[in-house]
Write a structure and sequence with these properties.
This protein has about 130 residues and is α+β, with helices and mostly antiparallel strands. It is about 65% helix and about 15% strand. A hairpin with a 6-residue loop joins strand 1 (about 1-10) and strand 2.
Length: about 130
């Protein structure tokens, strides 16, 4: 059983549940997840980080080759990417819930359930 925060749309009466805890798709597919979640404040950072990351890797890699430096860019880049992915995975569901609240969805409560579907059904029964 996992906790879900359930929201109800005041206009249409639709329900949506957001799991509380770590978001694995956001961890593994960070940039794609951020760009495709339809959370407005995540689209801009996803776009720029997806552009700047490879460009920075290319620039620093070229500087290492020209200056005959040891190869430190790739491990450093992978470490930063991993930390960034963990950060996004830890906060992704909080951002989704906050987006629902800011969009005016009503909080239907926090419910322990096996799945998102079961959490929504339990919220409808309350």
């Amino acid at each position: 059983m996992r906790p879900y925060k359930v929201f109800r749309s005041p206009n249409s009466g639709l329900y949506q549940a957001v799991k509380i805890g770590f978001n694995w798709p956001a961890f593994f597919f960070t940039y794609f997840w951020m760009a495709l979640t339809k959370v407005p404040r995540l689209g801009f950072p996803a776009f720029w980080s997806a552009l700047i990351g490879p460009f920075a890797l290319l620039v620093f890699g070229a500087a290492e080759a020209l200056l005959d430096m040891p190869n430190v860019t790739h491990p450093l880049f992978l470490f930063v990417w991993f930390v960034y992915s963990v950060f996004v995975g830890m906060h992704a569901n909080e951002w989704l819930a906050c987006d629902k609240e800011q969009a005016g969805w009503d909080d239907a409560g926090t419910i322990e359930a096996d799945s998102e579907y079961n959490a929504i059904q339990a919220a409808k029964r309350q």
